[in-house]
């Protein structure tokens, strides 16, 4: 309002936090959900669609009323973060969203034709890609968005580990691969990324230990064996689990 240019930033990775030039802005939970849904939607949303998404079990009339009330309860300091018309809502252009930047980073990394720039190949990128989207939010739309982000960030971390290995930045590459493994300990491609870094660095014993850890986890959790491709990374003869008592 009043022609002032507000600069807002919205943090959604790791936790929810809205800030402006004067620091953190406290926002009621219902209003937080409106901001978060608009940020995930990545573009304007109709009031009807947004209300239906946020209050899926309410009647349309009731959901619309809840949306109006969530907008009214936005504190004055936060009003400029949302642009409203009678039918459509959008986040203001002046709002920096960490999730949007992180998603762009991940897409630059996984794009087969793309060449990530030096700024993408850094520890800050690993830290960003290691974070969940709105952890501890259990709404269906938030959980679905976090799962889709988790899949994307695991791919991005695996690719990042590969780029960092090729420039012999092994400790950063290990950190990227470990972050991918932490996001899904049962995922073989993440484990393979980690094993490749150990091998590139000449740490064969570490690579074999990692393989053994994965084999044990996969066996105890799912009753499965790693694929032959993972063993071939290490030139392992097909190892019989029968001889192993651990």
Could you explain how this protein is built, in words?
With 246 residues, the chain is of the alpha+beta class. It is built from 11 helices and 7 strands. The protein has helices at residues 29-41, 47-54, 60-72, 76-79, 98-110, 123-129, 140-166, 170-183, 188-200, 204-222, 228-233; strands at 8-11, 17-20, 23-25, 45-46, 82-84, 88-91, 95-97. A 4-stranded mixed β-sheet has the order 3-2-1-7. Helix 1 (29-41) packs across helix 3 (60-72) and helix 6 runs parallel beside helix 8 (170-183). It is elongated, with a radius of gyration of 22 Å. The N and C termini lie far apart (66 Å).
Which structural category do the helix and sheet elements fall into? alpha+beta
Q: Biggest sheet, strands in spatial order? A: 3-2-1-7
Q: Can you count the helices?
A: 11
H and E order:
EEEHEHHHEEEHHHHHHH
Major pleated sheet: 4 strands, mixed
The strand count comes to 7
* Percent in strands: 5-15%
Straight-line N-to-C gap: 66 Å
Q: Rough shape?
A: elongated
Give the mean pLDDT.
91
As a percent range, the share of helical residues equals 55-70%
* Residue windows where pLDDT falls under 50 for at least 5 positions: 240-246
State the gist of this model.
The chain has 246 residues and is α+β, with helices and mostly antiparallel strands. The protein contains eleven helices and seven strands.
């Amino acid at each position: 309002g009043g022609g002032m240019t507000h600069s807002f930033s919205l943090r959604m990775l790791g936790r929810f936090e809205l800030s402006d030039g004067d620091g953190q802005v406290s926002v009621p939970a219902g209003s937080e959900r409106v901001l978060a849904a608009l940020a995930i939607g990545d573009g304007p949303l109709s009031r009807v669609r947004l209300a239906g998404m946020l209050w899926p079990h309410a009647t349309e009339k009731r959901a619309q009323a809840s949306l109006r009330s969530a907008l009214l309860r936005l504190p004055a300091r936060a009003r400029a973060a949302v642009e409203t018309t009678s039918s459509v809502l959008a986040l203001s252009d002046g709002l920096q969203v960490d999730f949007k930047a992180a998603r762009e980073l991940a897409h630059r990394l996984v794009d087969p034709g793309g060449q990530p720039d030096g700024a993408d190949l850094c520890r800050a990128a690993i830290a960003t890609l290691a974070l969940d989207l709105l952890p501890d939010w259990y709404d269906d739309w938030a959980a679905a968005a976090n799962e889709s982000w988790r899949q994307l960030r695991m791919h991005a971390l695996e690719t990042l580990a590969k780029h960092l290995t090729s420039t012999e930045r092994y400790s950063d590459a290990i950190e990227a691969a470990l972050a991918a493994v932490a996001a899904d300990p049962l995922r073989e491609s993440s484990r393979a990324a980690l094993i490749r870094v150990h091998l590139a660095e000449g740490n064969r014993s570490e690579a074999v230990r990692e393989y053994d850890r994965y084999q044990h986890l996969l066996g105890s959790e799912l009753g499965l064996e790693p694929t032959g491709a993972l063993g071939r990374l290490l030139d392992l003869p097909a190892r019989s689990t029968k001889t192993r008592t651990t």
